[in-house]
Design a protein that fits this description.
mainly beta, 197 residues, 7-stranded mixed beta sheet
């Protein structure tokens, strides 16, 4: 079964595939709970916490600079998918329009359906992170987090929150859903930060 869906990376990929990961031949979909169905017309991204309150609509998102991104994707369940093609908005472009209190050091990502995950603000504001609405030239399907998800390529994929609906800026770290259930607070795949213990 493993050979059918996954393969061991060769030594030439040692700088791209974290230790303990296998290459996925497809692009698996893993979700905890139900898949929310949110249309672009109904989608909202709410800014809260230690930031000027603000709400982005789909039209607001589309008015920001649109970019193509190619990024590797590393799942905590030990598979990686290389060179995934997305289109969306860089987190740095989004945050250029958001006023954040200097006391904020952390951000909680809120999602339709109630899922949450946390990020250190420095991890969140990296220039290679983005909000994705398109995958391989097609609108992002609901099972992959559409209409809009976060992609944080340098951390395990549970930090790349599907169905993003809110960013709550915090003065101190707080655990999200998987972090409360034993996952690592940061999730660096190169350090194998899968679990908190």
């Amino acid at each position: 079964m493993a050979g059918k869906f996954f393969e061991k990376p060769g030594p030439e990929l040692a700088d791209r595939v974290p230790p303990g990961q296998n290459l996925a031949k497809g692009f698996p979909v893993l979700t905890y709970g139900e898949t929310p169905e949110v249309s672009g017309a109904d989608w909202r991204l709410t800014i809260s916490g230690l930031a000027q309150p603000q709400t982005f609509t789909w039209d607001d998102l589309m008015a920001l600079p649109q970019r193509d991104f190619t990024a590797d994707f590393h799942c905590v369940t030990t598979w990686s998918k290389l060179d995934v093609s997305w289109t969306g908005v860089a987190i740095t472009d989004l945050m250029a329009t958001v006023e954040v209190d200097p006391q904020a050091v952390h951000v909680m990502l809120h999602c339709s359906g109630g899922y949450t995950t946390n990020l250190d603000l420095a991890d969140f504001l990296r220039p290679d992170n983005f909000l994705a609405h398109t995958l391989n030239g097609e609108p992002l399907p609901a099972e992959r987090g559409g209409p809009v998800r976060v992609v944080v390529p340098h951390l395990y994929a549970w930090k790349s929150a599907k169905w993003i609906s809110g960013l709550e800026f915090l003065a101190q770290p707080e655990p999200g859903f998987w972090e409360r259930n034993g996952y690592h607070m940061r999730g660096n795949p190169w350090a194998r930060e899968r679990y908190s213990r």
